[in-house]
Amino acid sequence: MGKTLFEKVWQQHVVQQNEDGSTLLYIDRHLVHEVTSPQAFEGLRLAGRKPWKISASIATPDHNVPTIDRDKGIADPVSRAQVEALDNNCAEFGITEFGLGDIRQGVVHVMGPEQGLILPGMTVVCGDSHTSTHGAFGSIAMGIGTSEVEHVLATQCLIQKKPKVMRISVNGSLPAGITGKDVALYIIGEIGTAGGTGFALEFAGEAIRALSMEGRMSLCNMAIEAGARCGMIAVDDVTLDYVRGRPYAPKADNWDAAEAMWRELHSDADAAFDAELVFDAANIVPQVSWGTSPEMVLPVTSSIPALQSARDEVQREGWRRALTYMGLQENTPITDIAIDKVFIGSCTNGRIEDFRAAAAIVQGKKVAANVKLAMVVPGSGLVKQQAEAEGLDAIFTAAGFQWRDPGCSMCLAMNADRLEPGERCASTSNRNFEGRQGMGGRTHLVSPAMAAAAGIAGHFVDVRDWS
Amino acid sequence: MQAFTTLKGLVAPMDRANVDTDAIIPKQFLKSIKRTGYGPFLFDEWRYEDRGEPEMDCTHRPVKTDFVLNQPRYQGAQILLARENFGCGSSREHAPWAILDYGFSCVIASSFADIFFNNCFKNGILPIVLDDKVIDQLFKECAATEGYSLTVDLPAQTVTTPSGHSFAFNIDGFRKHCLLNGLDDIGLTLTHADSIHAYEAARRQQAPWLF
Ligand code: SF4
C-alpha cells in the first residue's frame, strides 16, 4: 500500500523508535523569536549545554517590535529587554539573527520561507503555534512550547507521538474573490476548532493545487486553529518555483538532487488516511468571523446566528458569551456590522500577494469617515521593499491607510498597536479570541481584500460585488 | 521539575468550553524572560476589573467577584476542572507556567488542545482526560458541595470522588515515568546522542543540502 505525504516525511526523520510508541524525531529547521526563547536559552546556560547544530536555528524579533519610528528604538522597557535578550542569546550561542535593523527582519513565518530556510520535506519547529504555515512546502511543521525549544536547541530532536492523518480535499475551482484565507475559515467553520485535534492535515484537491504559495501558507497557517498538529500540502511546480533561487535554497547540483527527492513528496494514489473530508470549492463565499473563536465564522452574505439554532447547551452558552463580548445581536446581517479599525498584516496575510489584493480594492478610494485607523503592516522588510517598488504603499497612503514597518503588530498587540476596549476591527490575522488585539477589543477575521473593502465602506461588504 | 505522584486537592470549576491560552495568560505577560511569577496574572482579564501589566502588584487590584477563582470557596484549589478543548490557541508555555505558579498541578477536562497538553507534562502538571459525561457529573458535584476535592493517583491512574467513585484515565508510559520521577527529557534524549549522530551521518549522504 502507498504512503501518505505525512508518512514519507515522518519516516525520513525517525532517529529512534521508543518502546512506549513515542519517536525521537530529527528536526531540520528551528525558527526562533524573542517571546518563547529566553527561558530556553536560560535553561541551556544553567545546564551548561550548547546548541546541537547551530546552523539549524535562525532568529528574528517580531512580536514586540515597533511598527513606527523605529529609529527611536523600542519605547516599552519590558519589550526592549526581551528583544535585547534575543540579540544577546543569539550572539552568545552563535545563532544567526536578522535583527531590527536588518531588511530581512520580519514575522518568523514570513521571513523563513522568503529566505529559502523552509525546504520541502523538512521538519520545521518554532516556539509559536503558527509554525503550521510551513506545511505549505510539504514539510512537517509544528508549533512547540519553550521546554521543547530548549530540547531542540540541545538535541536537534523532539520526542513525538505520531499523529493520525486526515486528508481534506477541496474539489473544483474557487470562485473569483475567494482566497486561501476564506478556504481556511470555511473549513474551520465546518469542522470546528477541535476538528483536527490529534491529526496532521493534508490539504488536497484541485482548488488547493490552484492556490499560490502565499495562499497555501495562509491555509496551512490556520491548520492550528482547527486544532491540528500540522497542515501539509504536496510539493508541485508551484512549490519548487517559489523555493528556487532563494538565499538558503540549495544551488546547482544540490538543487537537482533535491528536486528529484522533493518530487516524491505527495501522497501515493493508494495511500490510506485515518480520516477523510471532501468539500466543494463552489460553496465557498467570502468569510467573516463574528465571535470569539475562529469556528464562529459565516459567509458575508449571512446573518449572526440565533441562539436557538445552537447544537447544544455548551455551544449556546459559548455563543451567548461571544455575542455579549462582541456587542452583537442575533440575526444581524454581517454587512450591517460597522468597524472602527482595519489591520492588514500578520503571518497569515502579510505577504506581497495579500498587499496586492488589498491595494487593488482601495486604489483611488478613501477610508470611511467612521474608521479611526486603518493600518497595513508588511510581514517582513523584504515584503515592504517589494511593495514599495510596486507602488502599493502610495496606493494605501493615498486612501488613508498607514504604511508601517514589519512585525506581528496588532495581530496580538504586544507592541503599541492595539484595539481599545469595545473597538471593532476587520483583521487579516488568525485569532479572534477575547482580548487578542487589545483588552476588550473585537476582532473579525477576514481576507485582505475583505478587510480593505470594509475599511473603505466602513462596514463589511461582499468583495465579489466590489467595483 | 517537581515529581507528581498522588494529589488530594480542592477543585475549582472552569465551566466553559474552548478556554484559550490568551485567556489563561494574556499577551502582555509574555514579555517576561522568567519562568515564574505568572500566578497572580492567571486568567487576568476574567479575574480583574482593570488591565494587568507585567510585574504590577496584584494585591490591591479590583477583582471581578463572580469569577470562579475569586470566590472564597475555591481559594487554595489545586485541581482545575474544565471542559472540551482546554488550552487551545497559542503555544505559549506561559499558560502552564501560570497554572502551576497559581497552585494547580492537575487539570481535568473532556479534551485538551495538543500543544498545551504536551506543555503540561514538561512542567510537572498532570492533564487528565475524562469522558464528557463524567466531567458533567464532576461539575455538578463540585457545584453542590462546598470544599469538593478529588484524589488523583498517578501510579494507579485513577481520579476518586469524595463519595468513593473512581474513574480510570489513560496516560502514555513515557510521560507517566517522567512525571513520577520529575525527569527532564533533555538529559534522557542526550543518552541517545550516538543514535542522533548516526542519523545525521546517514542523512548527510542523502540530503547534503540540509547540512
Ligand atoms: S503574526 Fe500573529 S499569529 Fe503570526 S507569529 Fe506573529 S503574533 Fe503569532
Question: Could you characterize what this model shows?
Answer:
Chain B: One of its GO terms (biological process) is L-leucine biosynthetic process. Chain B: Its EC number is 4.2.1.33. By secondary structure, chain A is an alpha/beta fold. Chain A folds into three domains: 180 residues, Aconitase, domain 3, CATH 3.30.499.10; 89 residues, Aconitase, Domain 2 (3-Layer(aba) Sandwich), CATH 3.40.1060.10; 174 residues, Aconitase, domain 3. Chain A is 32% helix and 16% strand. In chain A, the strands form five sheets. In chain A, strands 5-4-3-6-7 form a five-stranded parallel β-sheet, sandwiched between helices. The longest helix of chain A is centred in the N-terminal third of the chain and has 17 residues. The mean pLDDT of chain A is 96. Chain B has 211 residues and is of the alpha/beta class. Chain B folds into two domains: 165 residues, Aconitase, domain 4; 31 residues, no CATH class. In chain B, 32% of the residues lie in helices and 14% in strands. Chain B contains eight helices and seven strands. Chain B has a seven-stranded mixed β-sheet with strand order 4-3-2-1-5-6-7. Chain B is globular, with a radius of gyration of 19 Å. The two termini of chain B are 34 Å apart. The relative contact order of chain B is 0.16. At the A-B interface, helix 2, helix 3, helix 5, helix 10 and helix 11 of A face helix 4, helix 7 and helix 8 of B. The site of iron/sulfur cluster (SF4) has 13 residues of chain A, from helix 12.
Could you list some keywords that capture this structure?
heterodimer; A: 467 residues; alpha/beta; Aconitase, domain 3; Aconitase, Domain 2; 3 domains; 5-stranded parallel β-sheet; B: 211 residues; Aconitase, domain 4; 2 domains; 7-stranded mixed β-sheet; 8 helices; binds iron/sulfur cluster; Acnase/IPM_dHydase_lsu_aba_1/3 (chain A); 4 iron, 4 sulfur cluster binding (chain A); 3-isopropylmalate dehydratase large subunit (chain A)
